[in-house]
Hints:
Elements: E1 8-12, E2 15-16, H1 23-41, E3 46-53, H2 57-65, H3 70-87, E4 94-97, H4 101-116, E5 120-130, E6 135-137, E7 154-164, H5 170-179, E8 184-185, H6 187-196, E9 204-205, E10 207-209, E11 218-219, E12 222-227, H7 229-233, H8 236-239, E13 256-260, H9 264-278, E14 287-290, E15 293-295, E16 298-299, H10 310-317, H11 319-329, E17 336-337, H12 340-369, H13 382-403, H14 407-428, H15 430-433, H16 439-463, H17 468-478, H18 482-485
Parallel strand pairs: 1-3, 1-13, 2-3, 3-4, 8-14, 13-14, 15-17
Antiparallel strand pairs: 5-6, 5-7, 7-9, 10-12, 11-12, 15-16
Helix pairs in contact: 2-3, 10-11, 12-14, 12-16, 13-14, 13-16, 14-16, 16-17
Amino acid sequence: MFFGMKRFYLTTAIDYANGAPHIGHAYEKVLSDVMARYRRARGDEVHFLTGLDEHGQKVQKSAIANGVAPQTFCDQMAEKYKKLCEDLEISNDDYIRTTEERHKKVVRQLLQKLFDEGEIYLDEYTGFYSQRAEQFLQEKDRVDGEWPADFGEVVEITEQNYFFKLKKYQPWLIQFLEDNPDFIVPSFRQKQVMEFLKEDLNDLSISRPKERLEWGIPLPFDVNYVTYVWFDALINYISAVGFGEDGFEEFWPVDYHVIGKDILVPAHAIYWLIMLKACDIPLPKHILVHGFWTSSGAKVSKSVGNVINPLDYVKDFGKDSFRYFVTREMKVGQDAEFSHERFLSRYSGELANDLGNLLSRVLNMVGRYTDGVIPAPAGADELDKQLVKEFETAAKQAVANFDDLEFSVGLESVMDFVKSINKYAETRAPWKLAKSESAEDQDLLKTTLAHMAEALRLVSPLLNPVIPSSIGKLQEHLGVPVELRNEQILNRPVWEFKLTGLPVGEKVILFPRPEKS
């Protein structure tokens, strides 16, 4: 049995290998990465998982259309999704693929357990089936008598399949959600699940005949069938951390599982939770549900034809600018609009002008006025004290917001303080003080540069979870010692002038004017 400290375990939905990465995939990775980096800065030992869902009818169909074997097709798609993580500097600790043996072993183990305990049975079923969603539909799925476009072509089929006793657990699930009102974040998403549960559940078909679908994990108790893709995919969150092996409790239960709102019901809020309950596995601590990106009010999707390729923005503006925009723009849980004009406004205003130019200004003035060495302050007047007070307020507010997963609001507090540093500089005008020959003005110049440098040092850990590469450059050029760059300052930010006497680096442009704008 494991007796050590549990890690902070964070998982994302695994991407489906049927299509190329888009902004929805990218945002979910960035959001989760910001959470992971923030928790590390708070002192947690984090284990961050993402991965690829590789089985199912749509993958098999796409592989055939591309003239390759399904495994070859999945290998090609895995490289695209891994490159997305690499290009966005996602700090995941593991990458799970559902074609890996470590995963398939656990799927077979749990299927056999449920079958042996009578939780899975064979039956014939006639009903409507959506190939796009890879699920059987019910009459309640219709809207105004029609199948929603998201289901694609819906056909009526009759076939024999294995079913999991899903509806048996409906009363338990309702009670669990009533007893844990903060289980799903934001809370209005939990209310949607409760609304869904007002109608009776049907048992879940967890197999597909091999004559219709070959690309899947064969059932351990009947090789004529493969496992339904959702029953397979949802198990990755435990298979990746060694379910059934020593040390599993070091990770499980997951602290936060991050998904988009489109796969909350029924997959994660119904199927997954009941599967875990039936297998006697503890439930997650929280499910965090984010919204959709829209373009001119319409959901960004391949079917609509308004896909936004995040890697285009990474190429043209840098990975940190994309990370910053999506974190700053979307309030977690809500939908958000992605527009090129809005992106440029955030980039040129908050990143390039407010933060980037501030660093350039400090490096330039320290280089010119104090021989490239950050001076010690020579006292502090009300303006200096006000700057310190504004930092303490902003840091406290930002940490509270980040703790509550309100990263957009927290970033606003941090960037407001960055504006305060610039305002402080404009009020004090060190470039004018440098021209004065009075000792008093020279002391004031040193005090001003010391406060500006310290403000940048202290604000950098608050921005690091969102723009880690840019903050690394900022710290390097500001002369922050390596041992202070990863300082867990978010726990207790203290204004201590730790850069006094240290040399700064060459001037650097953190956010250059892009060739394309």
